[in-house]
Amino acid sequence: MSEVNNILALPPSLPQQELFEVLLRRDRTLIERIISTGQSTPPGKWLDQEAAEWVILLQGQAELSFETGVAVSLSAGDYLFIPPHQKHRVEATSVNPPCIWLAIHLA
User: The domain spanning residue 38 has which CATH number?
Assistant: First the structure.
């Protein structure tokens, strides 16, 4: 039997930087939990990922923007699909409560 964990459980002390936890890595799929506590993508930088990403915000609030000019506000329960090489940035993440993301990367 596998160990039972809780996706919403927070570490005893929140990190200064985003925390990335690999939950599952199989073949060309990566599932990770990300905890954000006010972090954002540095100014002028765009994330350009090789793999497609399906992401859901489980807790908190966040803002993403895309190179196309589209901006998206996310609340708990909101999810979206980001195709490979769709340049995007994290503009803001909430601190209280911290953001808890579930991201599925599909290569």
Answer: 2.60.120.10
Q: CA 102, CA 90: separation in Å to the nearest integer?
A: 15
Strand locations in 1-107, DSSP E?
19-26, 29-36, 52-59, 61-66, 71-75, 79-82, 88-93, 99-106
pLDDT tens string 2-57: 789 999 999 998 888 999 999 999 999 999 999 999 999 999 999 999 999 999 99
Count of structural domains within the chain: 1
Are the beta carbons of 86 and 42 closer than 8 angstroms?
A: no
Report yes or no on whether pTM surpasses 0.90.
Answer: yes
Whether 79 maps to a domain, the answer reads yes
Summarised one tens digit per residue, pLDDT across range 87-100 is 999 999 999 999 99
The residue count for the chain = 107
Give the span between the Cα atoms of 102 and 26, in whole angstroms. 16
Is 14 a domain residue?
Answer: no
